Amino acid sequence: MSNVQQAAKQVDAVVVGAGFAGMYALYKLREQGLRVQVYEAGTGVGGTWYWNRYPGARVDSQAYIYQYWFSKELLAEWNWSERFPAQDETERYLNHVADRFDLRKDIQFKTRVTAASYDEVSQRWTITTDDGQSVSAQYFIMGTGGLSVPMLPALPGIENFKGRIVHTAQWPREGVDLKGKRVGIIGTGATGIQVIQTIAGEVGHLTVFQRTPNYTIPMRNPKYDDAAREELRAQYPMLKERVQRTFAGFDYDFEDRNFFDVDPAERQRILQRLWDDGSLNFWIGGFREVFFDEKVNAEFSDFVRQRIRERVKDPKVADKLVPQDYGFGTRRVPLETKYYEAFNRDNVLLVDTKATPMEEVTEKGIRTAAGLHELDILICATGFDAGTGALTKVDIRGRDGVLLRDAWAQDGVRTTMGLQVHGYPNLFMTMAPFSPAAAFCNVPTCLQQQVDWIADCIGFVRDQGRHSIEPSAEAEAKWVAHHDELANLTLVPKTNSWYMGSNVKGKPRRLLAYAGGVGTYRAKCEEVKASGYEGFVTA
Ligand code: NA7
């Protein structure tokens, strides 16, 4: 008996995840007349913005480009309160979208997809969930996000800690009372920085365990009044188009001029202007050579180092907070608000875990080479198994029952444009490896572009009277080679971070995000579509 006969429920498409991508996939495919079932592990919609409810959680992209473009009514009625809204506002927006477009009726919450297998005879997927159900679907879409599998530090004795341990991405809905407590935090990435600057004034004592300092940019976050909102709204039609053509899916883009064609004084003025914008503009709206040229990168790095030093009172503490051994922008640049001032407080201690490694967790706290730090609460802002984590966690079996996880472990990660994988017909992905969405993108820009592509591709298969589509092995090999070639031109592989998978023990070190830019990526995706999906095989 084939899997399909065993499956009780039949739908056209199963979507995993009710975040930005999954909700849009549901909306689009439903509009195309498909019967869609979404499974979501959480109790509500929002994905990243549902799970990451830690103190200070906030978006680093401007609200006016961190939204859906598909509905004029939605754009007209939703009012953003500020340039970089906090988690609860973004979560409210996504809930509003779910209600506005009646999405919930096709979302089953509190349900995790555990396995999916493709049956070549019926050309359908059987998807299994953790409540023991299975469902048969022609199309299987993983909208599971690139940063959704949290990583806890592997510290000896962590199970002995008598206090509370909480990962930022699993922050309880009811909150955690930090007032007056002795709090420790491991991790100073974009998340750790937001937590530290937010809680420093509230906790009794804060010990920050830092392994690698980051280059950061001070966030400028004005509130919007009606006049400001109307001014932005008038630009929405332009912004909707523009973000699809820039390098990173933001409204700003690199200078047209080469860095060294601009004289040094003028360069400094440009850097200062970008810096004063208080956004990621300084990083992905400055000079593209920052990603490729060591000398250019050094000038950016020095500029930021100087700004950090100016704000930290104790030069010894500043030494620890200033990155020394890698270049600016070769890992994700966090935005911050009074982060460095937190280290000027008497109740905040910075522990450099490279100088004094964390040796063990005891009942009372963390013991480093220099002594015991007693703690009531330990916050792990220790990041995610990025890019591949959510895709290898599920038992996805393609042709001949081959597990995606095993195929990638054996032959290395491969995808075609981060959208499909050869051997896995009708499996589609968003934010997957080898697309810019995996790191170098204002995420909603890329997710919407990818879902549009997926919906068009499914429309094509149906129009042709075919049942399945997948990239050919040759087309995939070509994409992977193209991806790797671009990745190796950048300075990113020189630095350790989740961009390279180096934060996960045993994970092959490789840049998973497409480095060619969002505009170029989109043009390539459009080319494939216009060619009638050349390089793809239908059956
Ligand atoms: P990140 O950027 O991966 O940061 C994780 C942080 O945790 C980083 O500072 C790590 O140090 C640190 N870390 C992780 N494990 C350990 C151990 N075992 N010991 C010491 N320090 C550790 O995750 P975030 O959640 O901050 O941000 C993820 C993305 O979300 C972000 O880039 C935005 O795109 C939104 P390391 O740097 O590896 O030395």
Quick summary of this structure?
The chain is of the alpha/beta class and 539 residues long. Helix content is 32%, strand content 16%. It has helices at 3-6, 20-31, 48-51, 72-77, 87-100, 190-199, 226-242, 264-276, 281-284, 294-309, 315-321, 339-342, 389-393, 404-411, 443-463, 473-489, 518-530, and strands spanning 9-16, 36-39, 107-108, 113-119, 124-129, 134-142, 164-167, 182-186, 205-210, 217-218, 335-336, 348-352, 358-361, 365-368, 371-374, 377-380, 395-397, 427-429, 469-471, 536-538.
* CA distance, first residue to last residue: 22 Å
Give helix % range.
Answer: 25-40%
Share of residues in strands: 15-25%
Average pLDDT number? 97
Instruction: Indicate the overall shape.
Output: globular
Number-wise, the strands total: 20
Textual characterization of the structure:
Helices cover 32% and strands 16% of the residues. The longest helix is centred in the last third of the chain and has 21 residues, at 443-463. Strands 1, 2, 3, 4, 5, 6, 17 and 18 form an 8-stranded mixed β-sheet that branches. It is built from 17 helices and 20 strands. Mean pLDDT is 97; it is low at 1-5. It has helices at residues 3-6, 20-31, 48-51, 72-77, 87-100, 190-199, 226-242, 264-276, 281-284, 294-309, 315-321, 339-342, 389-393, 404-411, 443-463, 473-489, 518-530; strands spanning 9-16, 36-39, 107-108, 113-119, 124-129, 134-142, 164-167, 182-186, 205-210, 217-218, 335-336, 348-352, 358-361, 365-368, 371-374, 377-380, 395-397, 427-429, 469-471, 536-538. Helix 2 packs parallel to helix 15 (443-463). The protein has 539 residues and is α/β, with parallel strands linked by helices. Bound molecules: ligand NA7. Residues 147, 153, 186-192, 209, 211-212, 332, 353, 381-383, 497-498, 503 line the site of ligand NA7.
